[in-house]
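Table S2 (continued). Query chain:
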Amino acid sequence: MEQSNNKTGIIVGIVAVLAIGAGLLWAVSSKKDDSKKTTNETSQTQQATQQPAVKSPGTIVVLASNTPSLSTLVTAVKAASLVDTLQGQGPFTVFAPTNAAFEALPAGTLDTLLKPENVNTLKSILTYHVVPGKILASDLKDGQVITTVQGGNLTVSIMGGKVYLTDAKGNKVVVEAADVNADNGVVHVIGGVLLPS
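Corresponding output:
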């Protein structure tokens, strides 16, 4: 009988040891999982903070200043004291002539416009390229007439999948690059200088 009790005691002891061992293994394993989870979460958080933020394009003036092919326009905007206006809240739509577009003007025209005594004429020409509100290329329709900040009108025509603007003098200018977004509006790069009446 005593031998039977001893056997039972040994079995109970072995079971107890196994149960404790299993408990310890479970605790260690659980701790490792938690540690992995924390490490993974930390790693994911670090990756999220290390990813570069989407850079804001800035205002229309900043965008134009960062575009080498629009440097003449930026010079003209500064000469006409329109920087503050085009950095305003807007939104504005700007039809921005390229350097090549300004170079295509009759010889000496740009130099004459940039003189302080011609600031009002320059301002009139530049504001003729600006429309209040944000107008995307998809908003433009064939035959549409757009009123500019200057007060004059531009006529839209769409041919062969390209958008053209006709100014008050009858000059037709192509939109070379559309929908360049800025913080305070949108820029459409054009291949000519638009002239008011």
